[in-house]
Structures are given as C-alpha cells and as structure tokens.
Amino acid sequence: MIYYRGAFRETDNVIYFKSEVPLAENDVILLGEKKYFVESVEKEFVLLQRVGSIITVQLPT
Q1: What pLDDT shows up at residue 32?
Q2: Which residues pair with 47 in a beta bridge?
Q3: Using one digit for the tens of pLDDT, what is the confidence trace for 39-54?
Q4: Is residue 5 a part of any domain in this protein?
Q5: What are the percentages of helix, strand and coil residues in the chain, rounded to 5?
Q6: Which whole number is the average pLDDT over 1-13?
Q7: Is 18 exposed, middle or buried (0-12, 13-18, 19+ CB in 10 A)?
Q8: Which pLDDT belongs to residue 61?
C-alpha cells in the first residue's frame, strides 16, 4: 500500500489517499465519484487536476 498526498494547482486544498499500485504522470485516478489527472509525481506527493468527463475516442485503422 502506498500513501499519497495530493494537491491542486493554484489552491491550498490537499487530499490524502492510498493506492495499491504506484502512480505515474498522466495517470487518471478515481477517488469516489471524482476523477483526477496526475500532472506530476514526486515520491509520495502528486499534483492533481480535476477531470470533468472522459470521452471514448476511436482511432481510424
């Protein structure tokens, strides 16, 4: 179990959460009903950005 501290750009809000897998930049995580994009990871500190909605896109083959 890995414990993380997350912050949002230009705010003082900090959240604490745990993950069973290591997080990496560009991951999208679900915390309850909310989705967050991981902008950067430094040790157990992550910079998060709130995601409004995720759209499925198909690429032409």
Answers
A1: 85
A2: 7, 40
A3: 999 988 999 988 877 6
A4: no
A5: 0, 55, 45
A6: 88
A7: exposed
A8: 77
3-state secondary structure 2-21: EEEEEEECCCCCEEEEEECC
Taking the C-alpha atoms of residue 50 and residue 7, their distance in angstroms, rounded to an integer, is 11
CA–CA separation, 31 and 10 (whole Å): 20
Render pLDDT for 13-41 as a digit per residue (tens, 0 to 9): 899 999 999 999 999 998 888 888 999 99
Structure tokens belonging to residue 59 = 């690429």
How many structural domains does the chain have?
A: 1
| Alpha-carbon distance values, 55 to 14, 42, 51, 52 (Å) | 27, 28, 11, 10
Distance (Å, whole) CA 2 – CA 56: 29
Q: What are phi and psi of 39, to 5 degrees?
A: -80, -40
- Whether residue 3 lies inside any domain: the answer is no
